[in-house]
Amino acid sequence: MESAAVKPRTATIHRRTKETSIDVTLNVDGRGAGDFDTGIGFLDHLLDHLSKHGLFDITVHATGDLRIDPHHTVEDVAITLGKAFDEALDGRKGIARMSDATVPMDESLASVAVDISGRGYSVVEAAFSSSEVGGMPTTLIRHFLESFAREAKMNIYARVLSGYDDHHKAEALFKALARALDGATRLDKRRLEDVPSTKGVI
């Protein structure tokens, strides 16, 4: 934090549907502490990367209709986490707003650019060779990013640039997302009272 006058950027969000029950807490200005229990091990693994490499303190506890498949749980975790970022960054004053990161993971390389613009939009260019990783369908990686971007009200442009191991591709994507989000959410002491937009509002 650059100023004691800046209020804590935290959020606690609960989401209840007939399909899932999700509890998320977020501290944007954390130290990378994560606690994840979604019932989907690989999703927990990806969220851990988001927390650790973005220096966000995040807890996600979820129960869902996994007897059907992981879709509803992955989607609702993304929705709830996106809402948490939107709430924690209320008003968007002082943030850098835009950032990008390119991250290698062994043979894989991924790039993510983020604009916390107030408009939820995503472009995901990521091809996976297998139908699932760790029991999680690879199609849900795209769906997670799309749902998260919409609810967080930010633009996310995510690309897997190279690689052949789907586990590594997914890890690289989430590490790059973490680094890009860390850069975009950082406070700039030169404009703590200003919104980074020519419109004056985000």
The gist of it:
The protein is of the alpha+beta class and 202 residues long.
Question: Features of this protein?
Answer:
202 residues; Ribosomal Protein S5, domain 2; 4 helices; globular
Notes on the protein architecture:
With 202 residues, the protein is α+β, with helices and mostly antiparallel strands. It has one domain: 2-Layer Sandwich (Ribosomal Protein S5, domain 2). 33% of the residues lie in helices and 30% in strands. The protein has a four-stranded mixed sheet with strand order 1-2-4-3, with helices on one face. Strands 5-6-10-7 form a four-stranded mixed sheet. The relative contact order is 0.21.
Instruction: Please give the largest β-sheet.
Output: 4 strands, mixed
What gross morphology would you assign? globular
Strand order of the largest sheet: 1-2-4-3
Helicity level: 25-40%
Gap between N and C termini? 21 Å
Q: Could you list the spans in which at least 5 consecutive residues all have pLDDT below 50?
A: none
Q: Could you say what the CATH architecture is?
A: 2-Layer Sandwich
Tally of separate helices: 4
Look at the structure and give the mean pLDDT.
Answer: 95
SSE series: EEEHEHEEEEEHEH
Radius of gyration: 16 Å
